[in-house]
Amino acid sequence: MTVVKLSLPAVFILTAVGFIIATFNLPQASLGNAFGPHYFPMGASALLLLLSVFYFIRSYRERHEEHKEDEDIRAVAKGRTPYIIGGTLIFGVVYALIFDFVGYIIATLLYLGVLMFIINGKSKWLINVLTTIIFTFMSWYIFAELLNISLP
Amino acid sequence: MDYGYFIDGLMNAITPLNLLFVFLGGLLGTIVGMLPGLGPATGVAVLIPVTFGMEPISAMILLIAIYYGAMYGGSRSSILLNTPGDASAIAASFDGYPMAKKGQAGQALAIATIASLVGGTVAVIGFTFLAGPLADFAIRFGPAEYFLLMLFTLSAIVSLSRGDMLKGFISMLFGLVLSTIGVDAQSSVYRFTMGLPQLAEGIDFLIVIIGIYAVGEVLYNFIAINRPPEKKNKVESLWFTREQWNASKLPIFRSAPLGFIVGVLPGAGGSIASMLGYTTERQLSRTPERFGQGTAEGVAAPESANNSASVGALIPLLSMGIPGSGTTAVLLGALVMLGIQPGPLLFESEPTTIWTLINSMFIGNLFLVVINILLVGLLIKVLDTPSNILYPLILMLGFIGAYTLSYSTIDFYILLAFGVLGLAFKLLRFPIAPLILALIVGHDMEQNFRKSLIVSDGSASVFFSSPISVVLIIMIILSISVPFILSAVKNKKAKQA
Amino acid sequence: MKRIILLLLSIAFIGGCSAEQSQGEESDYPPDLIEFVAPATPGGGWDLTARSMQRALNNNELVESDINVVNKPGGGGEVGFQYLKNRDSNTLAVNSSLLFTNNELGLSELSHEDFTPLAILATEWQSIAVGPDSDYDNLEAVMEQLKKDPESLKIGVAPGLGNDDHLSFIQAAQEYGIDPSKLDFLVYESGGEVVTALLGGHIDVATMSVSEASEQYKADRLDIVGVSSEERLEELPEVPTFKEQGVDLVFPHWRGVMGPPDMTEEEIAYWDERLQQMVETEEWQTILENNQWDDYYMNAEETEQFMDEQEQTYQELLTNAGLTE
């Protein structure tokens, strides 16, 4: 619980630190004020760092108090939810990797199909397969043919 | 105003063919506006080849109908699914989605449509009478004024997160930091692009919107997928109540001119207009605590502002040939290809064209109301789709939408990353709007700040040197301090009681 | 190819339909589907060029294959050019001088030698404009003032440094004996914003293409003090050229088209023929006129030579602007 709550401010802190370091490494501008490109990112990330550290400490102090969002956070780790969310993300990356090579239709059939089975299980296979096929071809038709948007 | 041209224009606008184009454009715009990531810009761009063989005036009517039709459609998905398709539709989700959850989706869609109609119509009237003076007003906005306007928008949006200002500020700063990715225009220095040419122009805020809202919302809903299905609130009615109308009347009519003026300013646009419409009404409301809980005026105000801003943006486009947004830039390109050269001369040399357009916009807004009211019943059905089928499909639409923005799979990774971030924001109750808005205006805000200082050779006095700046500074101070003063007064009262 | 496979697959999936486009093996050039890459978002100059070509070629039946315009924005053309590099000869891309400048500025590994030049199609001309009540109502007055104090006038440009709008001014200033690295440029998002800033008096001078300035000029809301063409322009006969005003410079802002590396002789010959016919069509002439472009056609061989010369010029310009060492 505490870990989840602290991870978001931790991401903010890391981002801020990352941007501050990157700002130090920016080349100087060859035109105009040499540090013109530096001031704004530096200021914004420094403020972000300050406030997220403050928030991090506050969350840490309040870690034993019960908040209204706690039920949601617990639910993330319950039952099949972690598998569904994890599956969506992992196969999302796979989708991005294969998209350009196998093309829109095959990639989408695979990804959506896998997702439907992860979410609904094998028992509803017919609905899963039908939804996947109908959506894939309908969306392809609408985008590629009617709207003339090039999908690979 | 010359009535001869007005009549000519009206006659042109109501030929059956042109009526058909207004209708088709409006319908197509509504559909395109509803889909995540597909906005008016894409809608107009893909139809350009279709208009090649058409009469220039008919083509212009068609393209512009898509443009304002998309503004109607944009709020549909915000209200029903909490997944705005475009930046200007975000504000409609603040109260629209809570309304839908309460079973008032029908009311929310209906009031949004009527608000859009009023906003659109007020703006067309404004366009008719004020195009010239407003264009002159807009050019008085220099870098300093733009910087202050953007600062004002950010302060207004942060003040929304009154429950926890700290979270609001962190969210905004995170957006600002991300907005610095990409080439720095003033110096051509590439910042934080990690060598990826796709990042040279920064992270596209539409990807972030789709990622945080659509993907994040889907992931968030996966949490509930194991729970026994909540008892769904039955959709009460497809039309708003008298009380809802009474509460929304004033906000609608106040937001329309506000949105119109913001829309006229090049670069400001619908996202700023709808946010300001929402925050203004919340500040003015006697019961601000109801905002965010699903109140009709919280849907009506931003929709009215957004639609009138979209018409307002046509003023600099047509009267000066200056596009104020990505979408109007696409429109400009299309018009030039059709042989219509927008600019100061267009009003003098081709008044009939302008009047045809104005009249067709009046008609188009009426058509759109009919289309959208008829669609309400159909769209509500979306809510009956079982969530285990609906959410994967929204996810896929998000992917397609992201792909159409720059045709690159790199955006898929960004999309997923922001989906996770969106989930975390939702879990920890961080406000999302400040992040998005900061990402949208952050880049321009910095550039305008730097340009102001180049103009003044480094002196800060440039920010106080015009009446417009002074007014904006006062508004910024007010928007930050008013919430504090109000809550102080309330505490005092509570103590006395 | 990929599309055809997809199409076949999809037809197989739906089942029962007869497949028409069932050519599995490579047919002769040109292929059934040609792709034009516009390395920019819809609405810009590159997009306009690609879509105009699509229109002129297909409507006049010069090319019978389907032509698709594909937008690949990002990195000042880099994304689109990278894409083109890995395609086969059914893909072409529009280009402009950014092809050199990106490389010189260290933003890109690619140069014109990585591609097959096919043609230069058209050019726009550059203009320098001032507000209607400006104290500097001719090019010499502007340049004299900048010579006295290079920071005294704020110059508006869009959308980034190192583009033709910027470099044409650099070269003009340099011809006049001004150190261009001292000039104060204000960079705006788009040409439209530069015009607005000039009308509102937020900048003193603006450099942009003629088409961006001419509407306001005709309405008498700003003043064009010079154009970069060899001779005065037909649509603006009263505006003097740079040359007439003591700045010895002709600066085209050209747009061309190129293919992926290693195109065959026949393929180049095919496009030489078709493009030459295209620029003569009435449709193309109308497009040029609507956009205020000038015909600037060069065939593949001439283009290759022209590219080599241009590369030299841009190399020097960027160094003088202070953008490269």
Automatic annotation (TrEMBL), chain A:
Q: Which InterPro entries match?
A: DUF1468
Provide this UniProt record's keywords sorted from A to Z: Membrane, Transmembrane, Transmembrane helix
Q: Which residues form the signal peptide?
A: none
Superkingdom field: Bacteria
Q: Which residues form the DUF1468 domain?
A: 10-152
Residues annotated as transmembrane? 6-26, 38-57, 89-118, 125-143
Per its record, how is this protein called by name?
A: DUF1468 domain-containing protein
Q: Which organism is it from?
A: Marinococcus halophilus
Taxonomically, what lineage is the organism?
Answer: Bacteria, Bacillati, Bacillota, Bacilli, Bacillales
TrEMBL record, chain B:
Q: Which UniProt keywords apply?
A: Membrane, Transmembrane, Transmembrane helix
Q: Does the keyword Cell membrane apply?
A: no
Pfam families, sorted = TctA
The cross-references to InterPro entries, in alphabetical order and at most eight, read: DUF112_TM (IPR002823)
Domain DUF112, first and last residues per copy: 19-437
**What residues form the membrane-spanning segments?**
17-38, 44-68, 108-131, 137-158, 165-183, 203-224, 258-278, 313-340, 361-383, 389-405, 412-442, 462-486
Q: What is this protein called?
A: Tripartite tricarboxylate transporter TctA
The species is Marinococcus halophilus
Automatic annotation (TrEMBL), chain C:
The reply on keyword Nucleotidyltransferase is no
Q: Which SUPFAM superfamilies match?
A: Periplasmic binding protein-like II
Q: Which Gene3D superfamilies match?
A: Bordetella uptake gene, domain 1, Periplasmic binding protein-like II
Q: Which UniProt key words apply to this protein? A: Signal
Q: Tell me the first and last residues of the signal peptide.
A: 1-19
Matching entries from InterPro entries are given as:
BUG, Bug_dom1
Keyword Signal applies: yes
PANTHER family given for it?
TRICARBOXYLATE-BINDING PROTEIN, UPF0065 PROTEIN YFLP
Q: Which family does it belong to?
A: Belongs to the UPF0065 (bug) family.
What name has this protein been given in UniProt? Membrane protein
Species per Swiss-Prot/TrEMBL record? Marinococcus halophilus
